[in-house]
Design goal:
Helices cover about 5% and strands about 35% of the residues. It is mainly beta. The longest helix is centred in the first third of the chain and has 5 residues. It is elongated, with a radius of gyration of 17 Å. The C terminus is likely disordered.
Length: about 130
């Protein structure tokens, strides 16, 4: 695989198999991107790659082109937030239909609403369940 072939997948949801058999799934990024300038591990090393799921780096793994055995593009998972009906004070308001992890409302644009993706599995949420 060439660097050009790999970098065609930047910003896309991919599955990467590394030389040791490790499978990483998420949105592909290159070190040095402006969005990660405050994290030395993701901004200083040259010509390294990593994947994110939600707002976290998958497996805390940064790799080189030569580490990649196989890469394939995955369609973005769609899901929705399922609001919990009988929740107690202090409990999460909803959970992701895909991974089942719980979430709480966030303040976005001065309103309480859910993110448009799951910070745990990276699934994008369908619009009708995003906010209240």
């Amino acid at each position: 695989m060439t660097r050009y072939e790999l970098e065609r997948h930047l910003g896309k949801y991919v599955e990467i198999v590394l030389f040791d058999g490790t499978v990483i799934e998420g949105i592909l990024h290159k070190t040095g991107e402006k969005a990660f300038e405050n994290d030395a591990n993701l901004s200083i090393p040259k010509l390294r790659y990593f994947c994110t799921c939600g707002d976290k780096v998958v497996s805390n793994c940064v790799f080189r082109l030569s580490h990649i055995k196989k890469i394939s593009r995955i369609k973005i998972k769609l899901s929705k937030w399922v609001k919990k009906k009988d929740r107690k004070v202090g409990e999460a308001e909803a959970y992701c239909l895909t991974c089942g992890r719980e979430v709480v409302y966030q303040v976005i644009n001065n309103r309480y609403q859910f993110e448009n993706y799951c910070p745990h599995c990276g699934a994008r949420m369908e619009n009708e369940e995003n906010n209240d």
